[in-house]
Design goal:
Blueprint lengths: L1 H23 L1 H8 L4 H6 L5 H20 L7 E3 L4 E3 L5 E3 L6 H11 L4 H12 L21 E9 L1 H6 L19 E8 L5 E13 L6 E11 L2 E4 L16 E3 L5 H11 L4 E3 L3 H10 L4 E4 L6 H13 L3 E4 H6 L3 H4 L25 E4 L2 H11 L5
Parallel strand pairs: 1-4, 9-10, 9-11
Antiparallel strand pairs: 2-3, 4-5, 5-6, 6-7, 7-8, 11-13, 12-13
Helix pairs in contact: 1-2, 1-4, 1-6, 5-6, 8-13, 9-10
Bound molecules: D-MYO-inositol-1,4-bisphosphate and calcium ion.
Amino acid sequence: MAELLRLLLRVAEKAANVARVCRQEALLFQLLVQEKTGDDKNKKFVQDFKTLADVVIQEMIRHDVGAQFPEMADFIHGEESNKFENGLGESVIVTVCGTEEETAALLATVLDGDRTAASLLARAIHQNPATTDASTEALTVPLSPSELGIWIDPIDATSQYIEGREEVLEEGHLFPSGLHCALVLIGVYLRSTGEPVMGVINQPFNYKDPSNGRWKGKHFWGVSCGNINICSLSRPKCGSEKGGGLSAVLSSSEKQVVKESLTSLCGPEKLMYASGAGYKILCVIQGLADVYVLSEGSTFKWDSCAPHALLRALGGGVVDLSKSLQSASEAQEGQAELTYHQSQTECKGADRWANQGGLVAYRDCSQLHSILTALKGKLL
Ligand code: 2IP
Ligand code: CA
């Protein structure tokens, strides 16, 4: 299944391209930042363009993966629904068509007849950017498409993507907010056990070329199945190995009790805040933080599946925080790993796929243990 990895790297790059085009083309950018409300929204298929951009990226990934691996077509899930409805009860299913012209015509129906915007978007969707990652060439992955499912987050940290702040930081520091936090996430899991086995992350806004003002992206990937554990990044050193203490990244909206407990454990300078659930896990993958702790059920399977696979490939993982806090022994703590195949049937809508108990993303089991010890009894 190394072909699947190469395909995902290509479609993620295409997705990143669409994300960049939507910000670079003045006409699309104008649509992106404009919020549709009230009557306007109900009359026609005048959706928020940001939702359409998300749906289009997700459908493009679904289309390309389904075309090459038809056995996977019914197991490709994402954050967005591709059904657009207007106030008159009419609906349009947004899909990627056989030709650029057909896709443009379909997109024009949801863009209130705006043919120019529809054509620009369709062009980006039907373009095939060249991506090669030599490190995937010699790879063999013993998995078959009929045992796999996929989670897609077309753009994680959408608010940062729309706001578009460009931050400049020194090497070795994480970005608390801004375009760097926006990521395309594609995760692959085993249908039988729900384990994440392959992940591709594309950061569309990684580096801005000062000569032409254009953004360049960067991709990261990992495979973890059986005794194969390979990641495009090598395992970073932990804080303690580097001579410092444990460092943690949190959401700025994290509960006060968690912020306080982790300040006592890590020290205030080792506690960091960043936007984007995917980006925070990527910080752990890159060694910019040792752990990411989240006490709320505010992330979903599509946020965590891809980066989780990379962390596993590096020897770490992502566990359910609330289950891990209930485990009786240290040995059990790592057994509450998040899985991706089962929904919470008692919940409705997106909540069926929430990581309900919160999470801890880590590279090192002993650090996971320190975090859990610091939080025990504080959250229940
Ligand atoms: C969001 C996004 C948010 C994150 C939230 C995710 O996904 O990553 O930034 O909140 O958990 O579900 P926070 O930044 O506070 O961690 P999306 O942008 O795709 O809705
Ligand atoms: Ca998300």
